[in-house]
UniProtKB/TrEMBL annotation:
InterPro entries: CRISPR_associated_Cas2, Virulence_VapD/CRISPR_Cas2. The lineage of its organism: Bacteria, Pseudomonadati, Bacteroidota, Chitinophagia, Chitinophagales. The gene is cas2. It is an enzyme of class 3 (hydrolase). Transmembrane segments: none annotated. Belongs to the CRISPR-associated endoribonuclease Cas2 protein family. Its EC number is 3.1.-.-. Mg(2+) binds at residue 19. This is CRISPR-associated endoribonuclease Cas2. It comes from Phnomibacter ginsenosidimutans.
Length: 112
């Protein structure tokens, strides 16, 4: 049973990609607040406007998707995608032409 709960098809990643306007002082304030609030919710920067969060289940991922939706600024484009740990692990990452390792998921401790 324990193995079923933590397998690579159940563990999820929430990926948030965004392009927010920064033309005015108010726009920059909204963009900064959105980023800071995502960091508070446990998201990590993957690229400039791409943040991701490791979640132990699809139910937990949905909680964080709903939080991001509540944080949306009034302007700009935001995309949210949820993928399995298995799919995330198949990603190929390069720095220039040199391959890098895919970021490891968070370690999880479960008490019975």
């Amino acid at each position: 049973m324990f193995q079923n709960r933590l397998n690579a098809y159940r563990v999820m990643w929430v990926i948030v990609m965004y392009d927010l306007p920064t033309d005015t002082k108010l726009d920059r304030k909204h963009a900064a607040r959105f980023r800071k609030d995502m960091l508070k919710d446990g998201f990590q920067m993957f690229q400039f406007s791409m943040y991701l969060r490791h979640c132990p289940s699809s139910e937990n991922a949905e909680v964080h998707v709903k939080r991001v939706k509540r944080l949306l600024p009034p302007n700009g484009h935001v995309g949210i995608i949820t993928i399995t740990d298995k799919q995330f692990g198949m990603m190929e990452i390069f720095r220039g032409k040199e391959p890098e390792k895919t970021p490891a998921g968070a370690q999880q401790l479960e008490m019975f």
